Amino acid sequence: MQTQKAKMVLQDPPFNVAINGHVCGSGKTKHKEFAFASGEMTDDQFIKFLETNFRLCASFSQEGSLHYNFMDWRHILHISVAGKNVFDSLINLCVWNKGTGGMGSCYRSAHELCFIFKKGNKSHTNNVELGKNGRYRTNVWNYPGVNSFGRHRQDLKMHPTVKPVEMLYDAILDVTKRGDLVLDSFLGSGSSLIAAEKAHRICYGIECEMLYIDTTIRRFQNIFKIDAVREKDGKTYNQLLEELKSGDTHD
Ligand SMILES: C[S@@+](CC[C@H](N)C(=O)[O-])C[C@H]1O[C@@H](n2cnc3c(N)ncnc32)[C@H](O)[C@@H]1O
How far is the CA of 147 from the centre of ligand 1 (A)? Predict the structure, then answer.
């Protein structure tokens, strides 16, 4: 990002729950556990994990930037404490209604929460303005999740917690302008990157799992027909794959 700063952080941190058995795992598709916050952290460690991430995101974002972070109902306290320690205000709490229940022994989970924190007191971009711009939005977001029928079910094969691109696209349109920077430090399968590209915004992302970086690049290239390029030498992803296949690679 060099000296540039994000206007919006839009991300989905791991929830500190085991993926298999909690998020998915009852069907045919199995995924490995996330490397961090996959149920191994204590309450205090998880708060610290979120707080450290929020501080870093805040330092790479503008005054008045909005920080959208998804979380499940079990960790309302953790994210609230971490958010309060870093940000200046909580401007809203949105509920993603997935339409269909996922895992859960009594009540199946059909929602996730999206906490919207703000850095600083400077006013933020608001493209909704009570419907003035033709956008009618509420803090309940209805978008089918991966457990719904149809094409979204396919998404589960890529990653255990894929967010609908349409939902992220709408959130980006709500609070940024064309060309603004969106940051996602838990990129997963790249849903926010794809949403940002569709909205003509610039997305910077971080993902620690090589497999999901590949998933993101392939997904992005398939949709936009744009080659991913490695910055340090200008080689395309497909060129690097060819080199890997032929054994002609040093890194
Ligand atoms: C909940 S998923 C994000 C899914 C994403 N929203 C999507 O639609 O695909 C969280 C992601 O964060 C990654 N992750 C966990 N800890 C991380 C860390 N310390 N740094 C970077 N990525 C991390 C995991 O590998 C996982 O892919």
Answer: 20
Averaged pLDDT, 215-244: 96
Which atom of ligand 1 sits closest to the CA of residue 161?
A: 4
Domain of 42, in residue numbers: 6-208
Residue 96 maps to a domain: yes
Region label for 238, one of left (φ > 0), alpha (ψ between -120 and 50) or beta (otherwise): alpha
Q: What is the pLDDT of residues 115-141, one digit of tens each?
A: 999 999 999 989 987 777 788 999 999
DSSP code at position 154: H
Q: What angle do the packed helices 76-86 and 43-59 form, to 10 degrees? A: 40
| pLDDT, average across residues 196-200 | 98
Encode pLDDT of 7-27 as tens digits. Answer: 999 999 999 998 876 666 556
Which of 16-30, 135-149, 223-237 is the most confident on average?
223-237
Does 218 map to a domain? Answer: no
**Counting atoms of ligand 1 from 1, which one is nearest the CA of 11?**
6
Domain count, the chain: 1
CA of 167 to the centre of ligand 1 (A): 18
Q: Which atom of ligand 1 is nearest to the CA of 212?
A: 27
Please calculate the CA angle 157-218-103 and round it to the nearest 5 degrees.
Answer: 20
CATH number at residue 123: 3.40.50.150
Does 213 fall in a domain?
no
